[in-house]
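Record format v2
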Amino acid sequence: MSCVTCEKTMSSNEPGAPSPDAAVAPRAIVAGHGDFAAGLVSAVQQITGRGSQLIPVSVLKLSVEDIENLLRTRMQEANVRVIFTDLQAGSCTMASRRILRGMDDAVLIAGTNLPILLDFVFAEGRTAPEAARHAAERGRAAITVHGAGSGPATGTGA
Amino acid sequence: MTLELYRIDDRLIHGQVVVGWGQPLDIDFIVLVDDTVATSDWEQELYRMGVPPEMDVYFHTAANAIPAIPKYRADSRRGLLLTGDIATMRQLTVGAGVTVVNVGGIHSRADRTQRLRYVFLAPDEEKALRDLAANGVAITAQDVPGARPVSLDDLLAGNEP
């Protein structure tokens, strides 16, 4: 497939493609190690055109206190109640859990993958926390294993 | 086995520790020495949830870590000891004979100057590291096992490998 074909596939001129108006106000923060957040949000934007629903946050060089302050500030600025993070043990997850302590209307999803975010940005009929919980289940189910040792379904035979 | 690593890391238990060091060193338990965490059930639960179920975490203040460290060194499993700051580790070098220290992460703060990508130091922290070295403690900076250890001289000079 040529690059031109790739660009055409991603264009908004085809039936079913996201409209240019798909951009809406932010509904969640994405945070994690390195460029995890920017990479995932970039992928969501490329696939759906709805990347503006997600605020990517990088925490390189920051102390635990500064990570917490940064995430709290971003949440307040954008008035969002959902945070997606990468690792259960990650600093962003730890900081988010401190922020969400006592916030009954907020949700943290740790272990975020691309299918989770794709489901989330299309679930506009739900509140953001509801959409996040639903997306987490979809993302969990989206993990598949192929190839050697995967059983009869792989077609390798017994 | 023994305590495989004595690490200063202001993020305490996080990805680099649990995955980055924990897996290659085959760590079975973490000793977290921090006066604040050791006196907060909520903080302890937060950190416990960050490690896999097969990994144990033990919490101590600096004072009660000192008599407990020999027991951890004699443990048949592999362990890793964490402090969140230099001052706490300094107490352990004096009280529990820690002789090799890994500086794994001291992050940006208003009174600190950047030395490495992951190490920022205030003047009193630099002095504390120099004092430790003068007392025979081997200090290197290394964020992950695959990185080259940075000597104290290079760390203080800001020579990133």
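Chain B has a mean pLDDT of 96.
The two ends of chain B are 31 Å apart (CA to CA).
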